[in-house]
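User: Here's a structure from my thesis project, written as structure tokens. My advisor, Dr. K., wants to see whether a designed sequence matches the one we expressed. Can you design one independently, without my sequence as a hint?
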């Protein structure tokens, strides 16, 4: 049914061509032969305007690419024909539903072409293949042939930057720098005694020892090293999975504090503790609930899409704060 119209046009053209040939032979005249030669010329043009298989057209694009969901990105394509293959197309049209542009070429015979297309992905993930729909037609657009050519790519579609990403980054940055986690505070273990110096805190003076030694003596306490804090995305299956991942990704991109380690818990993550942008494109919801990793005494902030009835197993003595998506949105909007 798809090519039925073309078959009928082809049969009609052949029928007219045969009639003109019979007329020129039966009634020899300049008019008859002129019509027959004109029809022969048209037939030759039609035959040679669709020479070559469309599969001989090759496309290449950047093999590696990073994009964000719903964010247009410009990509350069290149087109050429296979070596030692004959190709002659009167009209050539290139389209693809995922691209915003279409391209038309006249009398394409395999010359190299460059095309700038706009691609706007609508779903997070890894794209490994692209398709281009090719439509070739004869000189008079009576007949056409079509093909879908495929080529391999490695394009990573990342989560979108969340609309409250900047707000979330400031929220957690303020939380970390305000001393809530008590980074670097001294312990009650005395490191040494030393003479008082101008500018020292009076509260650190040991008055008992000072009275014995007839000079001001200061107590120096051991200082705790700042502990690295863990920001962990717990990828449980939820309708809020993509939204929370987008927010976590935004914080990961913008938070400049070095004392923070980001961790991704989910399926198809190559290294949960040394994550890259590619991991944000490949991560999938956990197939089953798992325990939180044990990071010792390091504080942990857990981003979870949705709090469910089953509780998360938390390591003993682990200092943990848990935020689900709806709860965090309420705090950020206050």
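Assistant: Designed independently from the structure alone:
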């Amino acid at each position: 049914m798809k090519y039925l119209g073309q078959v009928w046009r082809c049969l009609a053209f052949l029928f007219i061509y045969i009639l003109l040939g019979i007329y020129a032979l039966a009634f020899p005249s300049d008019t008859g032969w002129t019509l027959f030669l004109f029809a022969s010329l048209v037939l030759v043009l039609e035959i040679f305007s669709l020479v070559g298989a469309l599969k001989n057209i090759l496309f290449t694009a950047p093999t590696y690419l990073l994009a964000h969901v719903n964010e247009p990105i410009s990509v350069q394509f290149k087109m050429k024909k296979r070596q030692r293959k004959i190709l002659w197309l009167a009209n050539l049209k290139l389209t693809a539903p995922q691209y915003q542009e279409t391209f038309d070429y006249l009398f394409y015979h395999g010359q190299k072409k460059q095309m700038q297309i706009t691609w706007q992905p609508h779903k997070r993930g890894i794209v490994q293949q692209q398709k281009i729909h090719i439509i070739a037609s004869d000189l008079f657009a009576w007949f056409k042939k079509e093909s879908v050519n495929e080529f391999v790519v490695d394009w990573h579609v990342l989560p979108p930057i969340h609309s409250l990403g900047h707000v979330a980054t400031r929220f957690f940055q303020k939380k970390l720098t305000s001393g809530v986690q008590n980074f670097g505070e001294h312990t009650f273990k005395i490191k040494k005694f030393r003479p008082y110096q101008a500018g020292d805190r009076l509260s650190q003076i040991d008055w008992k020892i000072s009275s014995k030694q007839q000079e001001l003596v200061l107590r120096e306490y051991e200082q705790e090293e700042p502990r690295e804090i863990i920001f962990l995305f717990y990828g449980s299956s939820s309708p809020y999975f993509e939204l929370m991942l987008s927010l976590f990704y935004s914080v990961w991109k913008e938070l400049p504090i070095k004392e923070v380690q980001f961790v991704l818990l989910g399926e198809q993550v190559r290294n949960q503790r040394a994550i890259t942008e590619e991991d944000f494109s490949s991560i999938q919801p956990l197939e089953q609930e798992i325990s939180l990793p044990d990071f010792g005494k390091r504080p942990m902030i857990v981003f979870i899409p949705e709090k469910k009835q089953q509780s998360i197993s938390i390591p003993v003595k682990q200092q943990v704060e848990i935020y689900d998506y709806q709860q965090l949105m309420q705090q950020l909007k206050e």
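When you compare it with your expressed construct, this may help: Residues 186-223 form one domain.
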